[in-house]
Amino acid sequence: MELLKNKYFISCVLLFTVFHLWQDFFSTTPFLSNYLDDLLCLPIVLSGVLAVQRYFSAHSQRFVLPTSHIVFSFVFIAVIFEGILPAISAKYTQDFYDIFAYATGGFFFSVFINQAGD
């Protein structure tokens, strides 16, 4: 489980945790409140997927998620959260900047986290 020791993965999880704890006690900027979760979504989720794949399927720390899986995950998340849910529930709002945040998070994952381990 070397992946879970990756400094970029740990940074994403810590940033997510600290931000949400901070929100409970202090006010935050609307920009961070609206987009930080979306930015961190794919790096955190795909790191979990990669760890499971390495442990149960590939049995190798050198396994990396194919780009097609990362792109599919981005499209899936964007369609669900920015297309389907806003169409069926007033609780959700469609925001195309969220799609940019998902894409940026997916790119960050592919460049900094989705690397072959030792």
Describe the overall structure.
With 118 residues, the protein is mainly alpha-helical. The chain has one domain (2-113). It is built from 4 helices and no strands. The chain has helices spanning 7-25, 30-58, 67-88, 96-113. Helix 2 packs across helix 4 (96-113). The longest helix has 29 residues, at 30-58. It starts with 6 loop residues before the first helix and ends in a 5-residue tail after the last helix. The model has no long low-confidence stretch (mean pLDDT 94).
Gist of the model:
The protein is mainly α and about 120 residues long. Helix content is about 75%, strand content about 0%. It has 4 helices and no strands.
Largest sheet: none
Our count of helices gives 4
Structural class assignment:
mainly alpha
Report how far the terminal alpha carbons are from each other: 11 Å
Percentage of residues in DSSP E strands: under 5%
Large-scale geometry = globular
Number of domains: 1
Average pLDDT number: 94
Q: Report low-confidence residues grouped into runs of 5 or more.
A: none
- Cα-atom radius of gyration: 15 Å
The sequence of SSEs as H and E is HHHH
Q: How many DSSP E strands? A: 0
Helix amount, in percent? over 70%
Helices and strands in order:
Layout: H1 7-25, H2 30-58, H3 67-88, H4 96-113
Helix pairs in contact: 1-2, 2-4, 3-4
